[in-house]
Amino acid sequence: MAKNLQVTVLLDIYGEMLTEKQRSFLEYYYNDDLSLSEIAENEGITRQGVRDAIKRAEAQLFDMENKLGLLARFEELRRGLNEISESANLIFEQNMRFGLSREINDATVRIRALAATLMEN
Q: How much is the pLDDT for 110?
């Protein structure tokens, strides 16, 4: 995962654990695509001050992920749900070719729907 994308995802997960100022700087920089100079001008501080605050906030996000692992767990669950969905598709296709069991068909439809719902959340 690219660092910019990883920081924005970590910000979504752990953002409430940062100070309001740290969260704002990261949102301005990563989500609103403002430059360090633009943030500095808006906040009335130096460009270097903004850069330092962003670097500290990024370090805190990565430290929280290293300790708590919520992003890693989320990605593991997503991979598992994708595998479940793919397996249900294979079972459905085999059933359509060889068995035509209504129960298997209904079960695979439920499995795929549940996996899709869980992937959305």
A: 94
